[in-house]
Amino acid sequence: MTNYNEDKGNTDCFSWTRDSALTFKLIVDSFIAGDKSLEPIIKNYIVAQANLQTVSNPSGGLSTGGLAEPKFNLDETAFTGSWGRPQRDGPALRATALIAYGRYLLANGQSSVASNILWPIISNDLSYVMGNWNQTTFDLWEEVKGSSFFTTAVQHRALVEGASFATLIGQSCPGCTSQAPQVLCFLQSYWNGNYIVANINQNNGRSGKDSNTILGSIHTFDTAAGCDASTFQPCSDKALANLKAYVDSFRSIYGINSGRGEGQAAAVGRYPEDVYYNGNPWYISTAAVAEQLYDALYQWNKIGSITITPISLAFFQDFQPSVTTGTYKSGSSTYSSLSSAIKTYADGFMTIVQQYTPANGSISEQFDRNTGAQLSAYDLTWSFAAFLTAGNARANTFPASWGEPSANSIPSQCIATSFAGPYATPTATVFPTGTSTPNCSPNTVTFDVTKSTVYGENLYVVGNQSSLGEWSTTAGVKMDANRYTSSNPQWETTMTFAPGVAFEYKYYKTNTDGSVTWENGGNRVFKVGQQCAGAVSQTDAWQS
Ligand code: NOJ
């Protein structure tokens, strides 16, 4: 649960669906990365969410809008005071947090827990998103009613993950599949040619430069997505131009930024026009800028180059005024000097967070624009989570891909649509005890795919498992052509998986010029049997 105190000494504490989901996404990722002590609180979170979905509240009931109620009392009763509601990012973020844990369960032989306990909760949240993404909402700062970039971005991600998670557990989510491309289409409307406008379909008189957009980019970062601009990936030209426009808007308005010119880290807040507590820097916002930059650095290193377009040129010129558009390969002096200057820039934002955090480590919501003293909600859970996710990105520790590469093609025509999905009360909330990966040898799976190739071309299998390269076309498993003949152009490779693991995969081909060709069609699904030490073959034909 996420506590939030309006003021030190004030005992008003609430649980926000958004803050809780973002925090539990971090906790689930930390659990998957090795901290197994976290599983009990993950289960507590899930049980609490199953209940909260059923609590009637001022936004509605389970199937009538209640899932987008922004916050609840800590005893899991509805908060009935006036508030900026509904906030339609909550169900999407919660689905994403639960799917992360669900994928862990599937990969560890606990598919019945994923199906019986997690899926009913996730399915309700997905139904909410597919049915309401096109409706106006209060933004994540709970102030503006309109369309919010952060909300649209996380809704797209949730529907994409929802579709593949459903397939993995033998369910389907037709509304995820039909709505996700339209949500992506709508997401493009926030770009104004220079930066991402945080809130549209409203008239609040603000510039639109807002931490909303940085948070949208980092919470939809996908290590497999390259620098794709359709989803505003952190290293995309649009997201970098946006970062500059956003950060620069705070340089002259906060006293503590005095002397911090363009290209130097600065304290940043929600949006420059903010008047809450007179408008101040926020820890969440300052850490988020660092995180976007760390994400970008990771991706450039992985891709092996930095590409500068006319859109991102001004961002890069802050670090090297003479730089021009083009692609700079790692190893080149331009790549080295830019990446090292941007690393210093990113670290500068973390240093600001550190500088204004008291020695006892308590992180509040804001720090004073002139004195740097902490302000507003103290020990704000989301502030800690934001610092930790930025720290993970700095350490190159990233969560699994959400499937961006399979969901980044923008429809030629945007349609304002929706899909009526099912809602049902989640009833299974008791986790079985003692469920763990069967203690036996892994199963071998032989992938066989037929595809005619020419000399110099190679076939790879890639998918959403670390052993399958997490969808990266630089980390797929190379297949061998030992049994390839012209009449039977067979490529194959044999791998081992734990019993009960379910995953998605696809084939791609590397061409003689080094480019990559994906096979067509949706992601393929494979479920490893529950039995121990089995050997199975999967025979596929390349989808042209
Ligand atoms: C106010 C913030 O604007 C909002 O985003 C957040 O959910 C709540 N505080 C709780 O942290």
UniProtKB/TrEMBL annotation:
Catalytic reaction(s) noted: Hydrolysis of terminal (1->4)-linked alpha-D-glucose residues successively from non-reducing ends of the chains with release of beta-D-glucose
InterPro entries tied to this protein: 6-hairpin_glycosidase_sf, 6hp_glycosidase-like_sf, Carb-bd-like_fold, CBM20, CBM20_glucoamylase, GH15-like, Glucoamylase, Glucoamylase_SBD
UniProt protein name: glucan 1,4-alpha-glucosidase
Family: Belongs to the glycosyl hydrolase 15 family.
SMART domains: CBM_2 (SM01065)
GO terms of biological process kind: polysaccharide catabolic process
Keyword Signal: yes
CDD domains for this protein: CBM20_glucoamylase
Keywords from the UniProt entry: Carbohydrate metabolism, Glycoprotein, Glycosidase, Hydrolase, Polysaccharide degradation, Signal
Residues the record lists as binding substrate: 83
Single GO molecular function: starch binding
UniProt domain CBM20: residue ranges: 437-544
A GO CC term assigned to this protein in UniProt: fungal-type vacuole
Active-site residue numbers: 139, 142
Enzyme Commission number(s) from the entry: 3.2.1.3
